[in-house]
Amino acid sequence: MIARFSTGSRALNANHPEWWVGAVSGLAWCVLLASAWPGAGHAHHEMAPNYWQQFGHWMLMMAAMMLPLILESARIAAVRSFWWRRHRAIALFVTGYLLVWLLLGIPVALLPPSPLLAAASLMVAAAWFLVPVKRRLRLGCHLTIPMEPSGWRADRDCIHFGWKIGVRCAGNCGVLMVACAALGHVVIGMVLIAALTLLERVRPLNAGAVAAALLITGVGVATL
Amino acid sequence: MALRIRKNVWKLSVNDQTLLWYARAVGVMKSRPITDPTSWRYQGAIHEYTIGEDPLENPGEALPSAAERQRFWTRCQHGTWFFLPWHRMYLGWFEKIVQAAITSLGGPTDWALPYWNYSDGANPDARRVPPAFRNPTLMDGSTNHLYVAERARNCNLGNIMAQPFDVDLDCLTEPSFTALANGSTPGFGGPRTGFEHSGGVIGLLEGTPHGSMHVAVGGRGSPTTPPGWMSAFNTAALDPLFWLHHANIDRLWAVWRKRNTQHVDPTLAQWLTGVTFEFHDAAGNIVSNRCQDVVDSTTPALNYRYEEESDPFQVAPSPPTGVVVLGAGGLTMAPAVPEMVGATTDLVLTDAATRARVPVSAPTGPQLAAAGGAPTRMYLNVENITGKAGSQRYALYLNVPENQDPKSHPELLAGVLPMFGLKESSRSDGDHPGSGLQYTFEISRVANVLKSRNDWDPQELRVVFVPYDTEEDPSGPMLAAAPAPTPPVRVGRVSLYVA
To answer: In this predicted model, which residue has the larger pLDDT, B67 or B369?
Structure first.
């Protein structure tokens, strides 16, 4: 049994070195779910969260919701690297990617959770679904770039790769993420939005863009 | 209805009217406005359409609404495992529209799209454009709707317009349909992707002969003139030859499956049913298909087969290599995990041969322990190829001595870079992420040749990109320098993988 597990884990690591990025996302979801569980952190919920709590929650949300979207890109960063630095390449790529969300989180964390802000964000996000530039940004999330094989330039290129994907991803999904934050990181909202962002990466949403926009608008109205 | 037969265009009898009816139907479709889904230009736009780059644009004309364009136009699938099934759907609905036009003209009711088998070694004319497509007028002086002026010069002159390696069928020997997207095989049919993707590695069939023949027909253009229609995604389907070319590519998919029982299509639901593609039928109604609808062309919905689906090699393919593992189902072959062992970045290809050196390191991963450090397969990846205009094709040779002409070393040819769709793939817009093109070549055979000559250097691989196009007469100097400069093409990276 142990030998079989060992063989399986080696195969997983060889074929999908990005596995741990998915694991980090899963862990972040667990923390988010645990913190939302009834009875959990009552004392914390009775007070308005301070800036750092807000910021921490934002980054946790990004790890949970956004990292699954970049698994393929993380794999590409690894595959295009020497074997001995594949995990380093992934870590640098994820660093560059999360740096974008970290910078976005600095002002977002200043905003207190508010149904009005959430509704407004959702309305903007719904309209965003119908704008051609969103499609361009969504496609840009599949970008690849040439990367040096070794040395500091290889590290730089991995970070740069993550940054470029992050910028496009933030442009594509940023308003929805702001809405999630304004909703006070409600888990059901995060699950729905995560599913929507995942779906639009793999299926043609042209026909469904209007439906998605209406759905988001409906949720926005419901929050008021 | 009896099964329709898609026939070899070069074997049509003198009295056969398949092409005459095709020309008449194209004329009918061309007379329809672009807002009509059954019009010639609408059908071409399904492949790709770029406002401002439509060569048939009429000033002031109305286009379909933005929502309709976004839903039905620019849907072509390249660099993905949907390449073959999507184009089969596309051809199938196009064929029905042509058939309806022919019927409305009083023609036969069993018309089927012919195919252009340019790889037929028994036909000395195979690499010429069929005569029916070469003259602007018919015998009676009327317009020949199969003629397009925007082709490489040799095409409409009736010269041989492609090199033998443009029509090579090595792709049929690839056992796997799906690319592993890990630096190794690009697969027969391309990499596993979603609907919107990065323009991943080009599958073997999509590279050659598909891409090679696109650019062989379209030519490379110049800094001041765009290439012929067949060279670009957004104009290719405006050339009536496009449809015969793709019928042949579709035929080769059937040939690949038939030549070996181990050649099978993907069985994952993500491929079979994961994505729904939308088209229009002959009445202009919206219709949709998933891959599972088109895996068998003889079902009533498609109802065709090809005149020739036999194995062009007539020999058993070599078995796949890999690591034998004992699984629940008995002995199975697990593909060896490849690792990158060397790369060089940022090359600029011009009209002259471009040489580069790829520093190579010893494997440190699974290949270190495998086979005593001697990898069984080697792959060369040419990544992130970008350019602002159409390009000529490039032949890629390995370890050619500095003072020797690569063309005198066909045994060192690693592969061909067709560059089909280079311009469109290079720009970041609503239809492409801008990553450029990526080709992968298995170079194990060339490496073995070099090793047998003691010309293999385990610490360095020398590559040379040699431009060629169809503007010259192939019976003359085959790889002569191009007559007019073309904008440079950038190669983001060349990398070597071992498995």
So the answer is: B67
